[in-house]
């Protein structure tokens, strides 16, 4: 059955609540009324805001990300432009379908809260940059104190060589190894090691960045964590992960830590990894 939705730009065929846009096409514009939100099934989308006569990218979104939800959460006009960075395929969610999704899967609400927190940080960063730019144009900033300059010139090195061993093994030598390429990804020295893909636009920088080995972009930006409890380690999958996490070929449940040990196989998205303790 064919569903009918209003869209901006080139007319697109919408079937089974999906729509396609070509690279550079506007999905919706600032101040437009909207009756649906979108989930990216394929491709990439930029959320763009015009400030002071200049276009600023607020968010760069990829497969599995959602946008446009304010139209159905608050019944307000769009607050920015959404533009297809690449050819994209979107899933369209109207208000009644969204309410049904929340009732059946409360994890969606958790993911939305996290996304709003991230977007608030991005908006604050952009505001600080714009304010700083204005101050720079009107009055030069005072020079930093000597102590700050010294701290920049002489950074303190990471204590990789002085780490309390666990069972005689330095924490920094515990790692994941990509089975296909042999690339190694050491655990962090703390109790939590984040796993995902870096995103310079949003500032997401996981401890284990799988971008170099994830040509298919199967790994979510906040995909999973390795948790250290005493002398033990476990894998914890984040809410909203798209392609799942597996330990020894078994899918792990979202939000529940699963123990791992040296020699175990861990699959992050499509990336086959092996746990190694030297």
Q: What fraction of the residues are assigned to beta strands by DSSP? A: 25-35%
What is the chain-wise order of helices and strands? Answer: EEEEEEHEEHHHEEEEEEEEEEE
Q: Provide a count of the helices.
A: 4
Strand order of the largest sheet: 10-9-19-18-15-16
Q: What is the chains' assembly state? A: single chain
Largest sheet: 6 strands, antiparallel
What does the radius of gyration come to?
22 Å
Quickly give the structural class: alpha+beta
- By DSSP, the count of extended strands is 19
**N-to-C terminal Cα separation, in Å?**
57 Å
Low-confidence runs of at least 5 consecutive residues = 1-15, 134-139, 147-170
Binned, the helix content reads: 10-25%
Round the mean pLDDT to the nearest integer and report it: 77
Overall shape: it is globular
């Amino acid at each position: 059955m064919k569903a009918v939705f209003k869209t901006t730009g080139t007319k697109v065929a919408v079937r089974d609540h999906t729509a396609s846009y070509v690279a550079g096409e506007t999905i919706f514009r600032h101040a437009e009324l909207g009756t649906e939100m979108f989930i990216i099934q394929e491709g990439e989308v930029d959320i763009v805001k015009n400030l002071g006569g200049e276009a600023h990218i607020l968010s760069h979104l990829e497969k599995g990300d959602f946008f446009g939800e304010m139209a159905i959460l608050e019944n307000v006009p769009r607050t920015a432009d959404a533009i297809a960075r690449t050819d994209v395929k979107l899933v369209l969610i109207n208000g009644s379908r969204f309410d049904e999704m929340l009732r059946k899967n409360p994890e969606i609400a958790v993911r939305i809260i996290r996304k709003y927190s991230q977007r608030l940080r991005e908006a604050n960063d952009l505001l600080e940059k714009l304010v700083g730019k204005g101050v720079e144009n009107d009055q030069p900033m005072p020079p930093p104190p000597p102590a700050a300059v010294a701290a920049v010139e002489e950074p303190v090195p990471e204590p990789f060589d002085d780490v309390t061993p666990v069972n005689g093994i330095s924490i920094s030598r515990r790692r994941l190894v990509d089975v296909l390429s042999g690339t190694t990804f050491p655990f962090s020295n703390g109790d939590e090691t984040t796993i995902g893909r870096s995103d310079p636009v949003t500032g997401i920088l996981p401890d284990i960045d799988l971008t170099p080995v994830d040509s298919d972009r199967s790994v979510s930006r906040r995909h999973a964590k390795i948790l250290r409890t005493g002398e033990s380690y476990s894998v914890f999958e984040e809410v909203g992960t798209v392609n799942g996490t597996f330990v020894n070929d078994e899918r792990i449940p979202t939000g529940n830590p699963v123990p791992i040990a040296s020699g175990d196989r861990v699959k992050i998205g499509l990336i086959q990894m092996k746990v190694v303790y030297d």
